[in-house]
Amino acid sequence: MRIQLLSSAVDGVFEKQYATSYLIDETVAVDAGSLGFHGEPEDQAKVKNLFITHSHADHIATLPIFVENAYEAKPDCVTVWGNAAVLKCIREDIFNDRFWPDFERLSTPEAPFVKLKELKAERPVEVDGLRITPILVNHQVRNFGFSIESADASVVIVSDTGPTERVWEVVNEIENLKAVFLEAAFPNHMHDLADVSLHLTPAMFAEEVKKIRRDTRLIVVHLKPRYRREIERELAALGLPSLEIGRPNEEYTFR
């Protein structure tokens, strides 16, 4: 399994992560914060299944651009998967003929623009050799993390969350777990903001990973760019040997 945290910085400073998208084996994506700016249109057209964690802008900002770029006027179009709240947002706030044309209404059986399919918590979906299971996490809107399993490896993308429980119960049941992608959005001195917005600081991150009973890589994502250096220093001070800072455009390979 190969996973890229896609860059969202147009000036080439790749360490900045303004929005979130993961590309998996070139054909599956999680979130569309920056997916519509990835590579060439032909690269985007390879992605036939897109899984959305939740409806916040940094996770869906380039969705309409991506769908347009990926359109090939063929029956095999992009399928966007999300919980009921995500699909409601896409239909009412994005593909609404105001913000963007209604791609569902404009679709034909011969050449659909997009298909929207609902995800249910802990009901897995199998696409392109991957088994993807949505797991509820603790955020301001209904939000799924994802367990992603191939024949050789399993990875969990936790998505935006405050302190949470169920995802760690699932993580601790995974036999071939290779990595957990987990956020640390704010520095420790902004604990109150992290608490009310249901994000994590490095100190809160440390409490969450204590709930993991398996040896695994901890890849930290969603560092707010303005506070990135401070967050990195606080994460380093935790002394966790398995911790690494996620780097946009780096390809992570799991076997």
Please name the defining characteristics of this protein:
alpha/beta, 7-stranded mixed sheet, globular
Overall average residue pLDDT? 96
Q: H/E element string?
A: EEEHEHHEHHEEEEEHEHHEHEE
CATH architecture classification name:
4-Layer Sandwich
CATH topology label = Metallo-beta-lactamase, Chain A
Total strand count, please? 14
How far the N terminus sits from the C terminus, by CA atoms, comes to: 7 Å
The 3D shape can be described as globular
Largest sheet, in brief, is: 7 strands, mixed
Please give the count of helices: 9
Strand order of the largest sheet: 6-5-4-3-2-1-14
Derived structural class: alpha/beta
CATH structural class: Alpha Beta
What percentage of residues falls in helices of 4 or more residues? 10-25%
Provide the number of structural domains: 1
According to CATH, the homologous superfamily is: Ribonuclease Z/Hydroxyacylglutathione hydrolase-like
Q: Proportion of β residues?
A: 15-25%
Q: What is the rounded Rg?
A: 18 Å
Write the layout of secondary structure elements.
Blueprint: E1 2-5, E2 22-24, E3 28-30, H1 41-45, E4 49-51, H2 57-60, H3 63-70, E5 78-82, H4 84-94, H5 103-106, E6 114-118, E7 125-127, E8 130-137, E9 143-149, E10 154-157, H6 166-171, E11 177-183, H7 191-197, H8 202-209, E12 217-221, H9 228-236, E13 243-245, E14 251-253
Parallel strand pairs: 3-4, 4-5, 5-6, 10-11, 11-12, 12-13
Antiparallel strand pairs: 1-2, 1-14, 2-3, 7-8, 8-9, 9-10
What does this 3D model show about the protein?
The protein is an alpha/beta fold. The protein has a single domain (2-253), classed as Metallo-beta-lactamase, Chain A (4-Layer Sandwich). It is built from nine helices and 14 strands. A seven-stranded mixed β-sheet has the order 6-5-4-3-2-1-14. The protein has a seven-stranded mixed β-sheet with strand order 7-8-9-10-11-12-13. It is globular and about 55 Å long. The mean pLDDT is 96.
